[in-house]
Amino acid sequence: xxxxxxxxxxxxxxxxxxxxxxxxxxxxxxxxxxxxxxxxxxxxxxxxxxxxxxxxxxxxxxxxxxxxxxxxxxxxxxxxxxxxxxxxxxxxxxxxxxxxxxxxxxxxxxxxxxxxxxxxxxxxxxxxxxxxxxxxxxxxxxxxxxxxxxxxxxxxxxxxxxxxxxxxxxxxxxxxxxxxxxxxxxxxxxxxxxxxxxxxxxxxxxxxxxxxxxxxxxxxxxxxxxxxxxxxxxxxxxxxxxxxxxxxxxxxxxx
Length: 255
What we know:
- By secondary structure, this protein is mainly beta.
- It has one domain (50-253): Jelly Rolls, CATH 2.60.120.560.
- 4% of the residues lie in helices and 41% in strands.
- It is built from 2 helices and 18 strands.
- The protein has helices at 123-127, 147-152; strands at 11-16, 31-36, 45-47, 57-58, 64-66, 74-77, 80-83, 89-93, 100-108, 114-121, 137-143, 167-170, 174-177, 202-209, 212-217, 220-229, 234-239, 244-253.
- Strands 4, 6, 7, 9, 13, 14, 15, 16 and 18 form a 9-stranded antiparallel β-sheet that branches.
- It starts with 10 loop residues before the first strand and ends with a strand.
């Protein structure tokens, strides 16, 4: 292993990614490239999956359909999409997915923006959305850093969520979250805070395999859970009151 000085990476190799918290179960036997940073506190596993690897393909307008938004809520350009945030709604994939890897970048265009990516959402919960609202499924939260301060302005305690990549079940969906967890034990809180500020691009790498979800934010694995039910269903991008851009949406389906 060749060593480089900080902040350059120590090494890049091919190996199975292990969990970043001791409470997390062993990783399935799936090899991906990782890099270990020269961290004074300890080695940090960083995913460098960017969607250019074999098997990935673009997700674009033809891969999604508007569920309960306006005609202009979503504006596509290749594998990038702009969302107005109005109304609270989703656009879903035209087909269900079971085992897959998903990469994308996102940026909020307004302070305190809120959005998310739904995994394994049941079609029945989509069909029930006749007006503003969100489906069931496993949500990978997409929050602007200013959301916490805005929430606390009214005297509310922001101890049940973070702005750095929470993962949690919605509605009738269930999941056993990885530690650390929210007080109600339903959300997986991130082990590190790596989200960038309003207007800056953030990178998400999501692995959803055999009912287990793992999220990397800007190269660092931070949260997830297993024993998800259902563990197959539709992807959805969330519109929730604030403009947001997504780009580089790519997916690799797995056996």
